[in-house]
Amino acid sequence: MPARASAARFALAAGLLWRVSLVSADAQSVAPHETAAVACVESYCRAVAAGDVSDALKRCTEKRDLRDALVSLTSELADKLNRVSADIRTFYRAGDETRAVVRVRVNWSDGNGKQVLGLDFRLDHEGDAWLIQGSRDAYDHVQKTLAEADAADRAGIIEQNGELVDAALALQMRRDAERLSIAGSYDEAVRMADAAIAVGERLKSPYDLGYAYLTRGSIRKRKSEWNPALNDYESARKQFVEAKDREGEGKTQSRAASIYQRVGLLEKAVRFNQNALDIAREIKDEDAEANALQDIGAVLKDMGRPAEALTYNTQARAIRQQRGEKARDAVLMANEAGLHADLGRYGKAVGMFLEALTLLRELKDTNGAAFALNNLGNLLDEMGDLEGARDRLSEARDAFRETRDRPGE
């Protein structure tokens, strides 16, 4: 590969925000500068940690095109920094030219948790000063490169940037894949999840692999790719079993159950939800337990077994009430009202719908209130109260319009 192309690829992977000319030298002339470079980086970091911006800048460049950005960067670091540590490595890339690069990863903590900044130091043209070539969280560039690469190229990219491939990168990629999926960018989301799986494989981490497969399964579920999604959930389950992560294992069961319910395999949906319920109770996860109870109730309702569904829904409500979760209790109350209607208890159903509606309005849950109004209107219609039904359905339509829920409207 030509030296310039190699340098460009490395610059991208290293997380460089600015590009400057690189020193041209042979290995013999570059190597003696390594000790000076490390001392330069250490001095810079000590000065930043001490809040001495001026002293920190003296360790770096006077180059005009970098000066303003360097001042801003260093000042921001000094303002935010509580404690700094530097992990310094020197890299050599051989081609027609040889370049020495010292990378420092500066870590600090603030209200948002641990932050990481990647800096690259390079020799300037004269070889007597070291430049901060770039500043940016290096994870961003490695992540972008991995996501855009073909599957066959990912292993090489990971190998070249092994020092940046860690659990933090894996987590960031999973979160971005989920964000892209929610935004409807499914193809990009799948590629990001694929890259997260490659990172998990590099780390030999069942935990990271499990959640990467879980993420990709959920993206495929949104695309209605049922079998690929189920395959991903099963792959995730195996990784979680190896990691002894019962919480993750439970998530695979509940998400697979939702697909089985969607495609009409209701007995299988109940069985997988029951697996999730058993795990939630074993690890004493009340939120997961309530979700599983609610999900089983929903499947039993679809199966035409409202009395059994009511039992599970009531148990879920008890947990939500105990935890003081009014919004979720209101949803379960509306579900319970519908089950009473299925059992022919129309008076009780109307009362519970009205109670749920009051709570949803109190919580300013317009969309939840719209569904409650819609269901109440349908029930009143079944009871022969046409005027009441018309009023409630009209209110539901207005609420759906307010939330821009076209299917609901």
How would you describe this structure to a colleague?
Among the domains are: 3-136, Nuclear Transport Factor 2, Chain: A (Roll), CATH 3.10.450; 325-409, Serine Threonine Protein Phosphatase 5, Tetratricopeptide repeat. The chain is built from 19 helices and four strands. The chain is of the alpha+beta class and 409 residues long. The protein is elongated and about 85 Å long. Strand 3 and strand 4 (130-136) form a beta hairpin. A four-stranded antiparallel β-sheet has the order 1-2-3-4, sandwiched between helices.
Total helices: the number is: 19
User: From the coordinates shown, what is the CATH architecture of the domain at 3-136?
Assistant: Roll
Cross-sheet strand order for the largest sheet? 1-2-3-4
Q: Sheet bearing the most strands, described?
A: 4 strands, antiparallel
Brief synopsis:
The protein is built from 19 helices and 4 strands.
